[in-house]
Structure formats: C-alpha cells, structure tokens
Amino acid sequence: MMSQKILASMLISCAALVSHSAFAADLEADMKTLAKSTKAFAEAKDIDNAKQQLVIMRQAALSSKLSLPHKLEGLPPENVQVKEYQAGLDQLVAEIDRVTVFVDKGQLDQAKTEAINLVNIRNENHKKFR
C-alpha cells in the first residue's frame, strides 16, 4: 500500500515536471517564432507575405500568454508581475493589429516604419521578464 502511494506521488511529480518543461519549451518556441516572423516581416517585399508574417506573429504572441517565463514560474495569475507580463503581450498583439491595418491598406512602407514599435515592446518586456 505504501509503495503504491510513493509510486503515485512520483508519477505526479514527473508529470508536473514534464508539463512544466513543455510550457517552457512552448514559450521558447513562440518567442523564436516571433523573432523569425518579425525579421521576415521587415524583409517582406509584398503585401501577402507581410500579412502572413503578421498572422504568424499574432498567433505566437497569443500562444505565449499560455506560458510564463522562468522568472515568473510558480506565481499565481493574480500576481502583479504576471499581470504585467500578460499586459505586455496584450500590448504586442494590439501593436501587431495596428501594423496590420497599414498592410491591409496597402501601405507596406508605413507598416514597416510603425513596426519598430514591435521591437520596442519586445525589448522593454525582455528587460522585465527574461
């Protein structure tokens, strides 16, 4: 009986570690996707490619909200830092949406100029949470 309890608690601990590692890996993958798509957007030569990169960026930013960076791991959702992290991602999504409006209007050069704010948001939040 005792060995079953020990085994059960070991399995639960392993499952928690695996899921924790999966979330960290997901966040890292999302951040790499954001970086890659931001670069591809800056190099986009046409509206369709630019739109595609913005869609990818938006999806990665939204997906990032499902995980926490290592610095915030274990903190409850109502923690001030966790809320700031979520707000930073919301700000990023809002900026992606704002840049998308320029692309939708066919104003690719203007969109690229405005997209510098994406980099600024990233840099600001990396200082806080990376």
Automatic annotation (TrEMBL):
GO terms for molecular function: electron transfer activity; heme binding; iron ion binding. Heme b binds at residues 31, 126. InterPro entries: Cyt_b562 (IPR009155), Cyt_c/b562 (IPR010980). Its cofactor is heme b. Keywords: Heme, Iron, Metal-binding, Signal. Binds 1 heme b (iron(II)-protoporphyrin IX) group per molecule. SUPFAM superfamilies: Cytochromes. It holds the Pfam family Cytochrom_B562. It comes from the Bacteria. Residues 1-24 form the signal peptide. One of its GO terms (cellular component) is periplasmic space. One of its GO terms (biological process) is electron transport chain. Belongs to the cytochrome b562 family. NCBIfam families: PRK15058.1 (NF011632). This is Cytochrome b562 family protein. It comes from Acinetobacter baumannii (strain 1295743).
